[in-house]
Amino acid sequence: MSPRARALVPILAVVALFCLPLLPEILGTRRLVFRDAQVTHWPWRRVAMASLAAGRVPFVNPSASGGEPLLPNPNAVLLYPTLLLEKLLPPASAFNLHYLLHVFWAFFGARALARRLGLSEGSAFFSGVAFAFSGTLMSFLSAFANSGPSASWLPWCAAATLDAVRADSFPRALRGCAAAGCAFGMQLLAGEPAISVLTLLFAAFLAAGEFFGSDRASRPSAPALLSRTVLAGSIAAALAAPLLLPLSAVFKLTYRGQHLYSERAFGSAPLAAWRLFEWIFPRFNGDPGDLGARAHWQYALHAGDVVYVWCVTFGVIPLLLVLLAILRREFWKGRSLWLAAGAAVSLLFSFGNSLPLFRLLFAFPALRRLRYPIKFYLLTTMCLALLSGFAAERLLSPDAKTGRRERWALLAAALLYVAAFLLAGPGGFADRTIAPVLTEGGLAQGKHLPAILATLRGDAVFGLIAVGVLGLVLLGRRRLRGRAWLLGLTALLLAFPWALPLFVSAREKDLERPPALLQALDREGLVYVRTRNPEPDTGSSGANSGLPERFVALARAQIEELVPETGAAFGVRYVFDADPDGSYGYYNRLAAEAASASTPEQRSRILRAYGARWYLHDEREPAPFFEPVTGIAVAGQRLNLSELPDALPELRWAGREYRRNSLSGALELVRSEGFRPDAEVVLPGPADREAAAAIPGKVTVETVEADRASARVEAGGAGHLVFSRTYFPAWKAKLDGRPVPVLVANARDLAVAVPAGSHRVEFSYDRAPFRRGVLLQAAAFVAILLAAARAGSQSLAGSR
To answer: What letter would DSSP give residue 220?
Structure first.
């Protein structure tokens, strides 16, 4: 067997071993439902595909918050190549593969980066496994349609950057810049800006190490380095232009574009120090598919900690390899030292504002729109995965001899896991220590304690297996062939007990069934859902107020409760969306907060003003002005669906106007008893002004779609045509074919001033930025092809 064929066998083994347990997800008989995958990413994808099937570009999501940007929303990931899977496969299979394929993309990328850094095939294979099957990557790729793919591009971006920096000829520099531009452009299209910023930092960090670590004679000049950076950045921006340009048109009035997070919000979801226990006991965070005793019990004991990355383990074998290697003085040099420094600094930033380092980032207003410091942990994971490859290279080299320190270290690790297994036994130290803590936290010992102890003992067994395999490989008298490959496959198998449960899925047949309330929503109109989003807690009941014990049942309960945006896949449209990523509009978010903080009567007035017809609420909560339609019991609570008998149309005439010089003043008027949204409008102005006499008018609706509307207006005098869509500057309007300004109506909606007489008014979402972006992307592809052809021809000429 040739060396290339021998290298291919373990790679195929990685693919096969990971795919076999997830075959139902790959075939689409089960669908991923954990966290954002269920609540936002799946509904958004279905709305977009329905729009495309009707021959329309999904610029606007009519189901979210009165009409939110959809294609310009990076979190929707609608301009990424995996969308094409929807044309080839069943929807659930295409959706799942968007997540699962990037596990392998991360593996191949980390392997390629390790090879760029000089590691052998076996050690690079090990680094690839360590990165792709780390807690961070598995957490991202099991729940987040944007973060996971973005993270999988990290090593590819870094590898291409190294190629561009190292290039010693024009063809190689051109090829490296094109590759870097492609990698960064695809990462931008994957839709996680914070990870793109971190990737840029990491690529610059590796490039700096390469630049200063090489001979002066082989370094590129400063102008050459600058030109390569500009070229790669231009290619990346052009490739991502169909997303970036439409986003730039609305970003200023998105919630993230308007809101500068406080220091506390900016540092939310940091890495807590107690979570480092997961490094050696990966299942310490519990089973995300279990809402009962085995699910994240420890968060009840650490009030205020928010989970963003479910598991933070590096894998026991990669971590032990690094620990063994750092005992050797010769390990601390060159790239190993540089990567260790990067891992340490990024780890410190992962702890958030509990460390002074993080406040350096908070000092920059542009960076305050990025959240979740634990994302820095992605860089820590990447550095440690590469370090584990360097450790394998050093410890498994033919001339390496296992010394006394390594033997003692392995023995200490084995004793640690043996002690953990014994101490976690019934009546043992862990039993006596954890039981009082559970009692103080209000947790039921009878359910939680056995689950906790079983998890600790199970991880102790897996840890002992890891130590045993390492001992066999390092201390065996006979040197096994392909030892790095063996360690990589073992690390993969030992990741399965904690990694596979992260891919929480439910039967597609159970999820595709329409919610029971859909039959009652028999007329057009927006829905306001005011129920708690069913979330697991760790109370003494083991589940929250009648919630099921398993997350898959919770997923069905969320659909039945129409938790935004779960109903969007079935055609339900929401007046407000409580999700911070789904509620993308700044105006809409403020209106939603005003509704939440209002009295029942005020809330009902706000809902009517913004076009709501349906109100889903707890049966004990009053819904003034709404009439009961039906009720339903879901997940331990009884809900009522009520209807507003005089719901407003999406296009309507307002013959009387108010002016308010603040959004708060406008919202206060909208929810007041004296405001009539069926005939009045409040607009921004330099000073407060009360309404004049009402002007009569008649509206004949021609068309109302997600991203456009038109109507004929017969007006007895000057007034306004109001359109119930969330205001963004991308909305344009024409009056009798002439462009006219679009105004902010009622602190959220759209309005156009209409003079007396007969007129035709058109609203449309601006498509020009997207068209320009497509042209730039096409130009970038052409430039890449020409550059590749030129580089190839010059390389061929040089070889002759």
So the answer is: P
Q: Look up residue 267 and give its two tokens.
A: 């540092």
Which residues lie below 8 Å from residue 558, measured CB to CB, with a gap of 6+?
Answer: 38, 39, 533, 534, 566
Neighbour tally for 458: CB within 10 Å: 16
pLDDT, tens digit, for every residue of 440-472?
656 666 667 777 888 889 999 999 999 999 998
pLDDT at position 465: 96
Strands 656-660 and 680-684: parallel
pTM tops 0.85, yes or no = yes
* Two tokens, residue 687: 């000073």
DSSP β-ladder status, 68-69 and 60-61: antiparallel
d(CA 133, CA 18): 10
CA 709 to CA 420: how far, in whole Å? Answer: 66
53 and 226 in contact (C-beta within 8 Å)? no
Range 358-367 contact pairs with CB under 8 angstroms and sequence separation of 24 or more: 358/267, 359/263, 361/266, 362/263, 362/266, 362/267, 365/260, 367/197
Closest CA to 24 of 33, 36, 37, 14: 33
Mean pLDDT value of segment 85-107: 97
Above pLDDT 70, what percent of the chain? 91
Q: Is the dihedral of CA 580, 582, 584, 585 positive or negative?
A: negative
| pLDDT tops 90 at residue 199 | yes
pLDDT in tens, 164-175: 999 888 888 888
Sequence-separated (6 or more) residues with CB below 8 Å from residue 201 = 379
Question: b/e map of 6-25 (b: 16 or more CB within 10 Å)?
Answer: ebeebbeebeeebeeebebb
Q: How far is residue 577's CA from residue 565's CA, in Å, rounded to a whole number?
A: 7
Amino acid (one-letter) located at 617: H
Question: Could you identify the residue written with the tokens 């409580």?
Answer: 578
AA letter at 68: E
What share of residues in the chain are helix, strand, coil (percent, to 5)? Answer: 55, 15, 30
Report in angstroms the alpha-carbon separations of 154 from 105, 165, 182, 381, 639: 10, 17, 12, 11, 45
CA distance 183 to 393: 28
Q: How far is CA 499 from CA 112, 133, 138, 289, 453, in A?
A: 23, 8, 6, 12, 19
Residues 6+ apart with CB under 8 A from 181: 231, 232, 233, 234, 235, 236, 238, 239, 780, 784
CA torsion, points 476, 481, 487, 493, in degrees to nearest 10? -110
